[in-house]
Write a structure and sequence with these properties.
alpha/beta, Rossmann fold, seven-stranded parallel sheet
């Protein structure tokens, strides 16, 4: 049995299809989850779905600012023990000639600076936890340049992996673990709204295990990494890709 009960997770990017699986898995184990989101409709749907689970699920947004502040989270739940950064949709792959420097710069800022800023914001509270956990998210392309992804996504998430390694070394002595989930070949976190958005259907027949990953697959892995029992694992990249990346 994983020890999740009574702990609190701040989750950026938890209102998408994939994130939902982790939110519900953690709440089912007794962990409280605070969603930071601009998608109020999705957040409210997840909160309703989590009703009756041992852990509470709440959200903070511009429309509901109370849970945007760390002090209020601690006041409500007693601690902040886990931080998950899973923000940013994937773009559809494009030929190199169609990718601009501005495209890359924007993605780098969102993925790397966004995750770094979130860690800095909540680190003082994680330091007070008896089992602090940080999870960042990357992709298969970040490790091997997988051409099923957009180049800017692969490069930016490669930076996230480097950030994982650096933070893990910096924080290991404080008992805070930092790990990364490289997720690829999983159900779309945000349904494709245009040809500019990545669609898992474009790589489904290339997934070695023969199936598309599910939100439950993601939730199960997250639940283990954030548990108190995972205290001996840090600085690792977990490939959740059905074999799109191996090694």
């Amino acid at each position: 049995m994983l020890t999740l009960k009574g702990r609190t997770c701040v989750f950026a990017g938890g209102t998408g299809v994939v994130g939902r699986g982790a939110v519900l898995a953690m709440a089912a184990g007794g962990m409280n989850v605070v969603l930071g989101t601009h998608n109020v409709e999705s957040a409210e749907a997840i909160v309703r779905e989590a009703e009756g689970l041992p852990g509470r699920v709440v959200y903070g947004s511009k429309e509901k600012p109370y849970f945007q502040e760390a002090e209020n989270i601690v006041k409500e739940f007693g601690s902040i023990d886990v931080l998950i950064s899973n923000t940013g949709a994937f773009d559809a792959p494009l030929p190199l000639d169609e990718i601009t420097e501005e495209d890359l710069a924007k993605k780098l800022t969102h993925q790397i600076s966004g995750a770094f800023g979130m860690v800095k914001r909540y680190l003082p509270y994680l330091r007070q936890s008896k089992a602090g956990r940080i999870i960042l998210n990357a992709s298969a392309g970040a490790q091997d340049g997988f051409d099923g992804e957009n180049l800017v996504d692969s490069v930016a998430r490669g930076g996230v992996i480097s950030l994982t390694y650096a933070l893990a070394r910096q924080l290991a002595g404080e008992g805070i673990t930092v790990n990364c989930i490289a997720k690829s070949g999983i159900v779309n976190d945000h349904a494709p709204r245009s040809p500019k958005n990545f669609d898992v259907a474009t790589v489904a027949d290339r997934i070695p295990v023969g199936v598309v990953g599910t939100t439950e697959n993601y939730g199960a892995l997250v639940s283990y990494i954030v548990s108190e029992e995972a205290n001996f694992i840090t600085g690792q990249v977990f490939n959740l890709s059905g074999g799109l990346h191996i090694g």
